[in-house]
Amino acid sequence: MLVSIRRHLSNIRRVHWGLAFLFLIGTAFAHRYHAAISSITRDNDGHVEIEHRLFMHDLEPLLKASDHNLESLEDKYGENLLRIYVESHFRLRDRDGNVLNLQWVGVEWDQTYATIYQESTSAITLTQWQIENRLMMEIPTQVNTVNVHDGHAHHSLVFTSSSTLQSVDP
Q1: How confident is the model at residue 86, as a pLDDT?
Q2: Which residue, among 77, 79, 120, has the nearest Cα to 100 in the 3D structure?
Q3: Whether the Cβ atoms of residue 92 and residue 167 lie closer than 8 Å to each other
Q4: pLDDT tens string 74-96
Q5: CATH class of 33-168
Q6: What residue segments make up the domains of the chain, in order of their start?
């Protein structure tokens, strides 16, 4: 009987250590990367729609650090601050480097992401796109992916703090 109890206690200890190990691994990898993803779609008429997905747990502290009056991103003051931030950190340029006008459409919030929408104010005909993406680059390990859909061509670009301006040939 004593041997059976010892075996049972030993199994319980192994399970507890295993659970503790899994907890530590999960905690260590819970947020080891900083990333954002954007999609740019240009339709046949030349209009461009842009969608950005930013992690709330990165975005909120970043904007609160830049404006101590910010109470919530989800009110008008917070959305305006976010709009100004996005418009100054994400730009499309023509081949000569001229910034193209993008209109703020809005933002949707959930516990994980802020999903931001922009669109071109007019049809754009480009022979070469330049994309400037400095979103969240205040975080040294930030990596952003931009997926570009231009007619039948598809491109994926990766942006880091050392590579914030890239060209796309349609």
Answers
A1: 97
A2: 120
A3: no
A4: 889 989 999 999 999 999 998 88
A5: alpha beta
A6: 1-30, 33-168
